[in-house]
Specification:
six-stranded parallel β-sheet; 13 helices; Rossmann fold; alpha/beta; single chain
Length: about 350
C-alpha cells in the first residue's frame, strides 16, 4: 500500500501528527508512506522513522502569485511527483482548503479527510472520497489524528505522546551555544497569534525567579517577527538572561533539546520541547489545553482560558477567562523538578 499523508503546517500541528505516521507504519509495516509538508517545515518530517519520502510544497507563495509561471510550474512538478508515487490512499488530517487542494492533486483513488465538525473548514470535503470521524468529545487533537488509521481498516492504537527523539538524535549539539552557561532554561515569548501572547513583564518575572530558584541561566529564543518582544523580556529580566541569536528549525531543536526547562505560550516550539522529554511549562490564555496542550512525560499547563464544550471541534480557541500570574508559572516549573 502506498499512502500520502498531507500535513503541510505548522510546527505544533506537525508534531501532533507524528503519532498518526507511527500508527500507520505499525498498522501496515510494508506500506510506503510519503509526507507532504511546506518547504519551511521539511526538517520536522525528513528522517522520521515512519516516513519513506517527503514531498514539499510552497502554498503560501502559490496563493500570493497564483497565475505566475513559476507557481504553475511548481504545481505541475508536484502533480508529476504524485503521478510517480501513484498512491493508493491520501490522508488529510489538516482539513483546510490548501491541504484539500493538495489531497485532490495526489490523484489517489481514496482521499480521506476528517468529518465535520472535527475538521476546521467545510469546503475541503469536496476533495475527499470519504471521511473519518475523529475522537469522541473534546479529546486531544492527537487522538483525533490517530483515529485516521481507520482509513486502512484498523482500530486506532491507544494514545502515545509525540516522540521527537529521532530529530534530537539528528540535530544533536550542532548549534553552537557561543559560551552559554549550562545548564540553561529557554523562554519562548512568541506565539502563533496575539490572543495567545504572555505579557513581557510576566515572562521577565518568571525568568528572574527560575534563574534564582533553579540556578539556571535563561535563553530567550524567538522566531520571525518576535525579536523585539524577546529583547524586551531580556531587558526587563536581569543579568542571567540572554537573547538567543536567530535559529532555523534544526538549530531551534538543538537549543530546546539541550535545555533543562522550557517555558512558553501555546506555540509550536513548546510542543517540540515536550516531544524531546524536556521539562516544559505551557501557558494557555485563549485556547483549550485539553485539546491542544503539550504531551510528554514532563509537561505542565497553566491555563487562564475557558474550556470548550464536550463536543468535537476543529479549533481549540476559547474565550480568555482570567490573567495568568507569574507565580503560577513559576510554581508549575518548580513542581516539575520535585
Amino acid at each position: 500500500m502506498r499512502i500520502v499523508l498531507i500535513r503541510l503546517s505548522a510546527l505544533g500541528d506537525i508534531v501532533h501528527t507524528w503519532p498518526l505516521a507511527c500508527a500507520l507504519r505499525e498498522a501496515q509495516p510494508r506500506l510506503h508512506l510519503s509526507w507532504v509538508v511546506e518547504e519551511h517545515f521539511r526538517p520536522l518530517v525528513d528522517g522520521h522513522p515512519a516516513v519513506d519520502s517527503v514531498v514539499v510544497t510552497r502554498t503560501r507563495l502559490w496563493r500570493r502569485r497564483p497565475w505566475s509561471i513559476h507557481t504553475r510550474a511548481e504545481i505541475a512538478a508536484l502533480k508529476s511527483r504524485f503521478h510517480e508515487l501513484h498512491p493508493d490512499v491520501a490522508i488529510d488530517p489538516q482539513g483546510v482548503l490548501k491541504s484539500a487542494f493538495v489531497t485532490r492533486w495526489t490523484g489517489a483513488p481514496r482521499r480521506i479527510g476528517l468529518a465535520l465538525p472535527w475538521r476546521r473548514e467545510r469546503l475541503p470535503g469536496l476533495a475527499y472520497t470519504e471521511t473519518v470521524r475523529g475522537a469522541a468529545g473534546g479529546s486531544h487533537v492527537v487522538d483525533t489524528n490517530v483515529e485516521m488509521v481507520r482509513a486502512v481498516d484498523l482500530p486506532p492504537p491507544s494514545r502515545r505522546p509525540p516522540d521527537g527523539s529521532w530529530l534530537l538524535d539528528r540535530v544533536g549539539h550542532q548549534f553552537p551555544t557561543n559560551g552559554w552557561p549550562e545548564p540553561y532554561a529557554v523562554v519562548l515569548p512568541g506565539t502563533g497569534g496575539g490572543h495567545k501572547v504572555v505579557a513581557v513583564q510576566t515572562l521577565a518575572e518568571v525568568s528572574r525567579e527560575i534563574a534564582a530558584r533553579l540556578d539556571l541561566d535563561i535563553v530567550v529564543a524567538w522566531g520571525p517577527g518576535e525579536e523585539s518582544r524577546a529583547a524586551a523580556v531580556v531587558e526587563a529580566g536581569g543579568k542571567r538572561i540572554r537573547l538567543a541569536p536567530p535559529t532555523d528549525l534544526e538549530e531551534l531543536a538543538a537549543v530546546l533539546g539541550g535545555s533543562s526547562l522550557v517555558v512558553g505560550g501555546d506555540t509550536g516550539p513548546v510542543h517540540l520541547a515536550a516531544s524531546f522529554g524536556v521539562p516544559t511549562v505551557a501557558v494557555f490564555l485563549a485556547s483549550d489545553w485539553r485539546r491542544n496542550g503539550p504531551l510528554g512525560p514532563r509537561t505542565a499547563v497553566v491555563s487562564g482560558a475557558g474550556e470548550s464544550q464536550e463536543r468535537p471541534s476543529g479549533s481549540a480557541r476559547t474565550a480568555p477567562l482570567r490573567p495568568v500570574t507569574s507565580q503560577e508559572i513559576i510554581s508549575a516549573a518548580l513542581d516539575l523538578f520535585d
